[in-house]
Amino acid sequence: MAFRSVFDGGALRTEFESAGISPHFVPLIWKYVLHNPGCDLSDVPSLPSAAYPLLSSKFRPLTSFLSSALDSNDRLTTKLLIRLQNGNSVEAVIMRYDTRHGKYDGKPRSGGPRSTLCVSSQVGCKMGCKFCATGTMGFKNNLSSGEIVEQLVHASRITHIRNVVFMGMGEPLNNYAALVEAIQIMTGFPFQLSPKKITVSTVGIIHAINKLPIDLPTVNLAVSLHAPDQDIRCQIMPAARAFPLGKLMDALQTYQMNTQQKVFVEYIMLDGVNDHEQHAHQLGKLLVTLKVVVNLIPFNPIGNSSCFRTSSEENVRRFQKVLRGVYNIRTTIRQEMGQDISGACGQLVVNLSEQRSAGGASKFKDIEDLHI
């Protein structure tokens, strides 16, 4: 029998309500589990007597366990391999930053050390992006809201997490209900993350983007665009055929009108594919009517089979100069973290026979540092 995670909030509240137990006990259970690793649900104090047999018969404090935690050489990145109760595994990545080492508007930043957690929403991915290691796995299954939140629980026992980005394995908006519930749990007691410190990345699932202003109005949206026109986009992101670029831009305009928020645009730099100066002009014209921050991402190798190469630093700088200088679009270059442990953007993939990834780690400019 498969048990539910106690962090599957909707399921737990439904069971409590059916048994006549007030759902206000649910966050208290979460707090106890969060602060008491290895506990049993019978240990949770001050619950109604009817709650204990219900919890023991249908739920577990955690349905996953931390199989390994691998640190990068600079110890700024930690990749977590998390084993699920169905035997599959997912990866999550902790990235540590110190804002005092950076500058904003030419001045030193205030603040200090903090950590961002990159979480997975699926085992594998249906999108099949050709530059992403996760796509080579194919799609295995969606994660429950509890399995998503449990990644935060495991990471919180290593370091305090301030920011969460849904940029790990899977397409978050293809697991929409679990995504929304997981974020609602993360922003409530006891985690209490600020919605403005949570970013959801998508290849551009239009019908789901249209629902975000209602369900998650203050969470950041990042769109994995990666090309300035539909033809190139379809070549490197086969799933883009279902989401025409014109309709995606219309959806982003509507999203922006409804939320009054800037949109992050992620653009992977592939040598000779999408990194020419003409591509920068095409991208600038495409985005000029939107309020966006473009994040240029150096391509991270995903093994010997990759047909792509990383753009030269000169091409990346030239691309940035066009977007900034000609189109006045704020454009950053992601400093990759964790390549030595395969924890960088596009490198997350689980080899189920070995239960670990092969490869490297990267230095990534934290998306929550962009002061939008």
Automatic annotation (TrEMBL):
Transmembrane segments: none
Main location class: cytoplasm
GO cellular component, one term: cytoplasm
Domain (Radical SAM core): residue spans on this chain: 120-278
Subcellular location(s) of the protein: Cytoplasm
Domain of life per record: Eukaryota
Entry-linked Gene3D superfamilies: Aldolase class I (3.20.20.70)
Gene Ontology molecular functions: 4 iron, 4 sulfur cluster binding; metal ion binding; RNA methyltransferase activity
GO biological process, one term: rRNA base methylation
Alphabetical list of Pfam families matching this protein: Radical_SAM
Signal peptide: none
Protein's UniProt name: Radical SAM superfamily
Source species: Musa troglodytarum (fe'i banana)
